[in-house]
Amino acid sequence: MKLTFWGAAQQVTGSMYLLELDDDYRILIDCGSDLERSNGHTPPPIDQPTTALFPFEASSLNVVLLTHAHIDHSGNLPNLYREGYEGQILCTEPTFALTDILLKDAASLNQKKINELNGSKKKKVRDKQVQLQKDLFLDRQVRESMESVVAIQFGRKFRLTDTCNVTFLPAGHLLGAAHIVVEVYENGQKKSICFSGDIGRKNYPLLVDPATVPHVDYLVCESTYGNRMHNDDVSPEDALADVIKRTCVDIPGRLIIPSFSVGRTQSLLYTLNRLYSERGFPPIKVFSDSPMAFESTKVYLKNVRQLSKEARDFYDANETLFDFENFEFLESSKASKAVSDYNEPCIIISSSGMVQGGRVEYHVAANIGNPYCTILLIGYCAEGTLGWRLLNGQPTLTIKGEEKQVLANIEKIDVFSGHGDRADLLGFVQMQSPETLKRVFLVHGETSSMEAFKGTLAEAGYPNVEIPAKGQTYEL
């Protein structure tokens, strides 16, 4: 069999790997959006693409395996069907539900872009319209792809063909996220390969710990945090309690937390619920301002039994995970803007996490000049985003076309990051014996992170580590 790396190769986003068996059965693992392509950072592929959107014929694929719902792993699935794919998508039930939410939201944004292009009278924009529309899937493509999903249970072998089976194992990171182990029988030999997906952290709010992976011959491992450790050495409850006490209790201030709607917001709400119910925190008003977070939270509630034992026990004792005194979901944009008139101490959780698009931009713009406001960044912010600029201490920012002075307090904690750090990644690889593991492929990371982690693995006794280029193929 052979493995080709068509995404997240020497970059973070766009996860997509093609596994071709000797009998010409073709498996695509993940089909994510390349979020770096528009910035010109994507390494050029070794081979020239054969179709408009994919470097292979979509109709030639037999099955797609999806590790988890995040858009950099799932975001090109509708386009795959539009290009001629007719097979199934295998993933866990929670991944199916969360992917459906994320893709429908993306389709809605795509429709708005198309409407704007169609309404433009500028020739330059009109000329760009045809090319852009090739990439912009709509709701009907989302429906087609989601109708083809087959839900797979964790820990149960699923037979793809007479010579190939697949097993999904909990990866942490996000509800439903999986490590995927593929076993192939060729020429009287068994070969096995594990695709890590995104590796979670131990004791992360709500989620189970990443599962133990059995010994395999080949390992495809993400490396997002391959060159760094998480800074926080306290629990999520302690870290959040400290910030809230300083910003909303000791002074009558306002705390704004930019947060991704799927996964991160649910962990925040659960942690706040525990602070209020177990530590006697005053019932400070909490607003969650994201329709997508509202829908995603329903998925978490529907899948309580797939959450951590701690979360299950809390739910059994309190009959809730996310609902507590003075908590309110803001569904309409009118309600969102009305929060500016709320004069008591409060916490506003809104997307996106990088302060780039979404309702959170309005909240930041309305409060950036308020010295009694604190903006708390809780995750990675890509270079150039408003979140990145806030973290780098820019004295003024241009938001919504208006330059504003930064008087609000800017803080950061990374205890809510869903990615495992260097130690977690090393622990994942060390489940495998250096004597029997034939090769490790590093993906889903910046080049500096991959190179550093490759050195870490070499010191730990794993010399056969590759950093594939986009389009590079390996015979396994």
UniProtKB/TrEMBL annotation:
Keyword Cytoplasm set for record: no
A molecular function GO annotation: RNA endonuclease activity
Domain Beta-Casp: 265-390
Domain Metallo-beta-lactamase: 13-260
InterPro entries according to UniProt: Beta_Casp, MBL, Metallo-B-lactamas, RibonucZ/Hydroxyglut_hydro, RMMBL
Key word Iron-sulfur present: no
Key words, A-Z: Hydrolase
Pfam families xref list: Beta-Casp, Lactamase_B, RMMBL
Protein name from the UniProt record: MBL fold metallo-hydrolase
The organism of origin for this protein: Fibrella rubiginis
Lineage: Bacteria, Pseudomonadati, Bacteroidota, Cytophagia, Cytophagales
